[in-house]
């Protein structure tokens, strides 16, 4: 599948479908299907793709076969592949598999961190600092996602000061990029307007990224608010699939095709082919045996 020639982008969309999009689905895709999903994303213009997760497949069976997926992804197409890492063993696997970037998730909620990652937030920060030190000189880009930054299913509202402190420590340890994640889709634009400047003030050298779920139909409004506050990197999942297996009622990510359409109509370039993305969302829905939550594939592009 040939990749499209990508125009310069005002907003980079990180395609998280192969990881966050699949990790909560009942249907398990084969390695070949996962590779095809990545190939289709590249053909639709994606240039940063969260391809795999180096977690225990017994806990998250949808993420099995990470090394085999990385062995099959298209290279020399201008794409950068991200692997999720939660510990030193995961880092060793990621480096051996040839990822271009690693992403470490640090929840802003102790209860969520304990249930999701089996440790406290303070412990996870220490783990991250060790991972960051181990990647010095490797040429690997390191990003930190602050999950439950807008709310936790167990603790409720998260004080913004807690998110800011985690971002500050991540930046001090050398994070190239910091993502603010609304893991369970409770955030609203007012929170985005509050958090983004606060985090930017303590991590001025890091790229700021945002990750939204559309659980309560606020994900796209939040993404547009983030863009208006200067965020130039946004996560999305083709077809709108996704969720967290450790968070009750955490439904899908904002859909890549719907986000790309909204941004284009708002005057921002993404380099994405929305028609190809919509077709990929439909293909993924068929593979998973369900209707994609995304709407562009149903309504079609405009103007046609």
Automatic annotation (TrEMBL):
GO molecular function: hydroxymethylglutaryl-CoA lyase activity; metal ion binding
A Pfam family this chain is assigned to: HMGL-like
GO biological process, one term: ketone body biosynthetic process
Keywords of the record: Lyase, Metal-binding
InterPro entries with a match to the protein in the record: Aldolase_TIM, HMGL, PYR_CT
Signal peptide: none
Transmembrane segments: none
Record keyword Membrane present: no
Domain Pyruvate carboxyltransferase: 11-278
Family, as annotated: Belongs to the HMG-CoA lyase family.
PANTHER family attached to this UniProt entry: HYDROXYMETHYLGLUTARYL-COA LYASE
Protein name: Hydroxymethylglutaryl-CoA lyase
Organism: Haloactinospora alba
Taxonomy of the source species: Bacteria, Bacillati, Actinomycetota, Actinomycetes, Streptosporangiales
């Amino acid at each position: 599948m040939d990749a499209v020639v990508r125009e310069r982008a005002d907003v980079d969309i990180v395609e998280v479908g192969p990881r966050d999009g699949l990790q909560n689905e009942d249907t398990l895709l084969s390695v070949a299907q996962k590779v095809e999903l990545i190939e289709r994303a590249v053909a639709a213009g994606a240039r940063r793709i969260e391809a795999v997760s180096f977690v225990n497949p017994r806990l998250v069976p949808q993420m099995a076969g990470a090394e085999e997926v990385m062995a099959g992804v298209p290279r020399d197409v201008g794409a950068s592949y991200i692997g999720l890492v939660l510990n030193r063993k995961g880092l060793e696997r990621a480096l051996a598999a040839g990822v271009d970037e690693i992403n470490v998730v640090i929840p802003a909620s102790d209860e969520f961190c304990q249930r999701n990652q089996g440790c406290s937030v303070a412990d996870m920060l220490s783990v991250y600092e060790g991972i960051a030190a181990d990647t010095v000189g490797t040429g690997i880009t390191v990003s930190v996602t602050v999950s439950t930054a807008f709310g936790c299913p167990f603790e409720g509202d998260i004080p913004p000061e807690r998110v800011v402190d985690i971002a500050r420590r991540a930046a001090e340890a050398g994070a190239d990029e910091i993502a603010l994640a609304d893991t369970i889709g409770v955030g609203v634009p007012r929170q985005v307007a509050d958090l983004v400047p606060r985090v930017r003030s303590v991590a001025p050298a890091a790229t700021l990224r945002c990750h939204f779920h559309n659980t309560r139909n606020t994900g796209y409004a939040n993404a547009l608010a983030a863009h208006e506050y200067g965020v130039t990197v946004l996560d999305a999942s083709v077809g709108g699939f996704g969720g967290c297996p450790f968070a009750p009622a955490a439904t899908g990510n904002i859909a890549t095709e719907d986000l790309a359409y909204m941004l284009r109509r708002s005057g921002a370039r993404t380099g994405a082919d929305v028609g190809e993305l919509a077709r990929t969302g439909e293909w993924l829905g068929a593979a998973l045996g369900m209707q994609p939550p995304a709407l562009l594939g149903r309504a079609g592009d405009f103007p046609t």
